[in-house]
Design brief:
- Helix 2 runs antiparallel to helix 10.
- The chain has a two-stranded antiparallel sheet with strand order 1-2.
- It has about 290 residues and is mainly alpha-helical.
Length: about 290
């Protein structure tokens, strides 16, 4: 029955309290770090920089006392998409500097540049998933709510509803593990009635087609839960952020500033690695 346990492969939206220095950072600092991290990983085109960033994320997981194996569970549901992305990058996306041909069959050509682009795409997604999992596992939903609201509070002067935006973000994060648990329950119920969900098949397309019957009941369950949440908020006379006071007031320290500075330097190193073309020099040394 392990193939039906979806929740254990979902790390986004869950919190793992360990009392580490990473957990004790100000949530605003962690949100700024996450924004810088996402921007750097998405912008960079350097495999060397991504490998260094991956090492930094693994070190941060160790500092946060979060097992790497636990954080890497979020990669398991995405591996068919990652493999498809790598194949698409190799065979369909043209490169300017093709280099020597490593393999060719009719119109299909593989060059070192194609392999480099596919490896960069895979590394980028792995680093992103592990980095987002690190922030989620080390920050509770309450801290995320307060952090987002405090960061966006100055924008309220131009009409941005910071409190409502933070609440929407937290509800979306909390729905991720809840929907995984609901999908697990529906899959077990359908399998007990003889439904073929495609498990044990190596073809991901067939597995995806057999998983379609899960979507309709899962969508209905999500709407039902959302309606229940709305009724509960209305019953408690929820009025949004207008005129509300704050019980929690965040206080940043020098440790938070140092953490943001370190990540900013890491992002600068990512951009510098791409500009120095370290990957091109490495690939030229390997393939001549």
């Amino acid at each position: 029955m392990s193939e039906f346990e979806y929740l254990r492969n979902v790390t986004i939206g869950q919190y793992l309290p360990t009392g580490s220095p990473v957990h004790l950072l100000d949530p605003r600092a962690k949100l700024v770090i996450a924004a810088l991290f996402l921007a750097g990983v998405v912008i960079t085109t350097s495999l060397t920089g991504l490998v260094g960033t991956l090492a930094a994320v693994v070190g941060s997981l160790a500092l946060a006392r979060i097992p790497l194996r636990y954080a890497a569970r979020g990669l398991r549901p995405t591996w068919p998409f990652l493999v498809f992305l790598a194949v698409l990058q190799v065979f369909t996306i043209p490169q300017n500097d093709v280099g020597p041909v490593l393999w060719q069959w009719r119109w299909l050509i593989i060059t070192p540049t194609d392999l480099l682009s596919a490896t960069i795409a895979l590394a980028r997604f792995v680093v992103l998933i592990l980095g987002i999992s690190l922030v989620s596992l080390s920050t509770s939903t309450t801290e995320i709510t307060h952090g987002v609201e405090h960061l966006l509070r100055p924008l309220g002067r131009i009409g941005l509803p910071a409190h409502e935006f933070a609440l929407t973000l937290v509800i979306a994060l909390r729905f991720v593990p809840i929907m995984a648990l609901e999908a697990e329950r529906i899959a077990k119920a359908q399998a007990s009635r003889g439904a073929d969900l495609g498990y044990g098949r190596m073809n991901p397309l067939k597995r995806a087609r057999h998983m379609l019957p899960l979507l309709i009941p899962l969508f209905v369950t999500a709407l039902r839960r959302a309606e229940t949440l709305v009724m509960a908020m209305e019953a408690r006379c929820y009025m949004g952020g207008q005129g509300r006071t704050h019980l929690v007031h965040l206080q940043a320290s020098w440790k938070d500033g140092m953490a943001v500075l370190i990540v900013a330097l890491l992002v600068a190193a990512l951009i510098a690695a791409a500009r120095l073309n370290l990957d091109g020099r490495l690939w030229q040394g390997l393939f001549g």
